[in-house]
């Protein structure tokens, strides 16, 4: 392989890694804080893309503004969903919570995905580009859009990390993730935290969807691959481990781009399955640790 | 006897408890008898086609419920096991010339083996791991089936030997019916045996089950394997009925349809999913305008059932049953 081929492979891996890290961090956040296994996460990515399309292509907003607005809309959608679906379920019964919420998100995913198809049709909605031009890094080149999307995801990831690490609210998030009852005793408003956590998680997914609009066009089934990959990432990291998910996101991005290069389509999936099976066999807590038993 | 103390939900038909054939209540026997004789009177091909299709999906929902309703494990890759059964049987029959009547069992075996593998790997961990790994396995099966064109013809679809020479639907119906009935009797029988008691104990209170000497992982793996083997068998039947199989058979919406049917029917009832399928699928087929919204409706129904009526159709029937019992008691007391 030529040197530039190697460079391309690595840069694609790192760029995709940014996307996976962003998606997976959101997924891990609500798994940790709310014990919700969200299988509609890909659909919030989809919502982000559709919102992004509406704001930038239909309304003609400035791309950065449009992308931020799309993330805000995804936040609102997420916290609405939490209020309308999870809150009543929590009030009704907390038995089998993980199982029940998981199925709830499966239903939600069906509704959003097929709703998008019903309303918008099986049509690709994309934009040729947000920004013109090409960036050269070392021997490889990439479009400005890709570079900006990557910068956006890195910024969001760093912001999330600082938020969880440095702010009072972030500490409350981590407290709830560690021990819900204990956090409530110390005066953390559980309901508010959960609502925020869900909104934040869906906002991250929406941000990813909107910022990649010129690369991955808005389409009803577009959420499937990011969902699959972000679940792969968080199993690899250890379920619910947010920081571990960020690191694993990049590992998976690189792994995928390398295996695709050498194995072609279809078979990288098998490699992934083999690796994750090996991991569960040898170290089920994941690379960065989590509780694996009920 | 092991099951002197039966779990609550198996006591519900105690008013009919006396005569039991194959452990089934008269109501259940009547239901199966109706399924058996309807095609003798209704000669309409389309109706029988719909019944076959509903029976096929309903049986899948029964197998699905066997795991989710008893050991709290969602097999989120269910369609993959169906597809594995279909391709195993289809390839054996087509490439090696084995009779489909025999290769179908190989399909069941393949489903069961994959279930065993995934179960052994994940069922000692949190329930989520089994769901996610089954899903990954299915995505992988689908990707590999699509990519391995020389073996499976990928997205072009694999033409498969049919079970019967004629295109008549009735023989297929009467092949599927005993399979479905067998699956029902098997699953229902297991849940009523001492193994079923262990399943329930695990599902309801893991710690207490362990404390009373039940090895949860072993029972969970058995359960998962049986459910997956049923999926494989039904997939194999599907292949030799339809005649062409494509990787899209393993697509997630198929899993979700089965999952939704099982939940709408009532989790933990086994038969609920079958009743739901027999009610819902013909309704969709007859209202063509709804067909387009099928998956949205499944999703919405799933959400509604989860939040507002977790016991599903089985819960409604059970309440009617209680009402009847109470009315009867009321009248006998007056007499």
Give keywords:
heterodimer, A: 294 residues, ABC transporter involved in vitamin B12 uptake, BtuC, two-stranded antiparallel sheet, 11 helices, 2 strands, B: 335 residues, 1% strand, globular
Summarize the structure.
The complex is a heterodimer of chains A (294) and B (335). Chain A is mainly α.
How would you explain this protein's 3D organization?
The complex is a heterodimer of chains A (294) and B (335). Chain A is mostly helical and 294 residues long. Chain A has a single domain (3-282), classed as ABC transporter involved in vitamin B12 uptake, BtuC (Orthogonal Bundle). Chain A is built from eleven helices and two strands; from the N terminus they run ααααββααααααα. Chain A has a two-stranded antiparallel sheet with strand order 1-2. In chain A, helix 1 packs parallel to helix 5 (144-166). The longest helix of chain A is centred in the N-terminal third of the chain and has 32 residues, at 3-34. Chain A is globular, with a radius of gyration of 19 Å. Chain B is mainly alpha-helical and 335 residues long. Chain B has a single domain, classed as ABC transporter involved in vitamin B12 uptake, BtuC. Chain B has a two-stranded antiparallel sheet. In chain B, helix 2 (45-68) packs parallel to helix 7 (170-192), helix 3 packs antiparallel against helix 4 (100-122) and helix 11 (252-265) crosses helix 14.
Characterize the biggest β-sheet of chain A. Answer: 2 strands, antiparallel
Total number of domains of chain A = 1
Instruction: Supply the CATH class of chain B.
Output: Mainly Alpha
Shape of chain A: globular
| Residue-averaged pLDDT of chain A | 85
Low-confidence runs of at least 5 consecutive residues of chain B = 1-17
- CATH architecture field of chain A: Orthogonal Bundle
Strand content of chain A: under 5%
* Number of β-strand runs of chain B: 2
CATH topology heading of chain A = ABC transporter involved in vitamin B12 uptake, BtuC
Structural class of chain B: mainly alpha
């Amino acid at each position: 392989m030529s040197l530039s081929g190697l460079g391309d492979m690595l840069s694609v891996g790192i760029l995709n890694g940014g996307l996976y890290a962003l998606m997976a961090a959101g997924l891990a956040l609500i798994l940790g804080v709310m014990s919700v296994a969200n299988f509609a996460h890909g659909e919030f990515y989809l919502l982000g893309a559709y919102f992004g399309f509406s704001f930038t292509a239909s309304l003609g907003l400035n791309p950065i503004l449009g992308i931020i607005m799309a993330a805000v809309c995804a936040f609102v959608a997420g916290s609405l969903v939490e209020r309308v679906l999870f809150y009543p379920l929590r009030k009704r019964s907390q038995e089998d919570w993980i199982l029940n919420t998981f199925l709830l998100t499966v239903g939600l995913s069906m509704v959003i995905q097929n709703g998008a198809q019903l309303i918008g049709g099986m049509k690709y909605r994309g934009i040729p580009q947000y920004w013109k031009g090409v960036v050269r890094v070392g021997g490889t080149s990439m479009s400005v859009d890709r570079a900006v999307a990557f910068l956006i995801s890195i910024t969001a990831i760093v912001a999330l990390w600082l938020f969880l690490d440095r702010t009072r609210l972030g500490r409350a998030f981590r407290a709830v993730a560690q021990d819900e009852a204990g956090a409530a005793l110390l005066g953390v408003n559980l309901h508010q935290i959960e609502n925020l956590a869900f909104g934040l998680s869906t906002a991250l997914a929406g941000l990813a969807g909107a910022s990649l609009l010129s690369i991955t066009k808005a389409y009803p089934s577009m959420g499937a691959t990011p969902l699959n990959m972000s679940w792969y990432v968080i199993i690899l990291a250890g379920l619910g481990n947010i920081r571990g998910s960020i690191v694993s996101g990049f590992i998976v991005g690189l792994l995928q781009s390398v295996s695709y290069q050498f194995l072609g389509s279809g078979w990288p999936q098998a490699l992934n399955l083999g690796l994750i099976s090996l991991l569960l066999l040898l170290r089920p807590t994941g690379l960065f640790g989590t509780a694996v038993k009920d | 006897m092991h099951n002197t103390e039966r779990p609550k939900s198996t006591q519900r038909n105690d008013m009919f408890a006396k005569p039991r054939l194959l452990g089934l209540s008269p109501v259940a026997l009547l239901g199966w008898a109706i399924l058996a004789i309807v095609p003798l009177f209704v000669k309409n091909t389309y109706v029988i086609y719909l019944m076959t299709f509903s029976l096929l999906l309903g049986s899948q929902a029964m197998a699905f419920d066997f795991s989710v309703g008893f050991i709290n494990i969602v097999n989120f890759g269910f369609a993959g096991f169906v597809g594995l059964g279909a391709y195993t049987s289809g390839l054996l029959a087509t490439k090696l010339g084995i009779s489909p009547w025999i290769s179908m069992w190989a399909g069941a075996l393949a489903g069961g083996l994959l279930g065993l593998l995934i179960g052994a790997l994940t069922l000692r961990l949190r329930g989520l791991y089994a769901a996610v790994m089954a899903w990954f396995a299915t995505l992988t099966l689908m990707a590999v089936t699509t990519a391995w064109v020389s073996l499976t013809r990928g997205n072009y679809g694999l033409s498969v030997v049919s079970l019967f020479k004629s295109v008549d639907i009735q023989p297929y119906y009467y092949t599927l019916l005993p399979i479905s009935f067998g699956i029902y009797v098997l699953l229902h029988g297991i849940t009523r045996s001492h193994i079923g008691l262990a399943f329930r104990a695990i599902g309801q209170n893991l710690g207490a089950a362990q404390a009373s000497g039940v090895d949860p992982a072993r029972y969970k793996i058995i359960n998962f394997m049986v459910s997956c083997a049923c999926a494989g068998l039904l997939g194999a039947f599907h292949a030799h009925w339809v005649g062409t199989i494509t990787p899209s058979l393993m697509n997630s919406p198929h899993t979700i349809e089965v999952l939704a049917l099982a939940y709408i029917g009532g989790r933990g009832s086994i038969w609920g999913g079958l009743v739901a399928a027999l009610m819902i699928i013909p309704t969709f087929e007859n209202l063509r305008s709804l067909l387009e919204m099928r998956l949205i409706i499944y999703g919405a129904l799933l959400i509604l059932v989860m939040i507002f009526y977790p016991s599903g159709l089985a819960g409604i029937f059970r309440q009617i049953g209680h009402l009847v019992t109470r009315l009867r008691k009321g009248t006998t007391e007056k007499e």
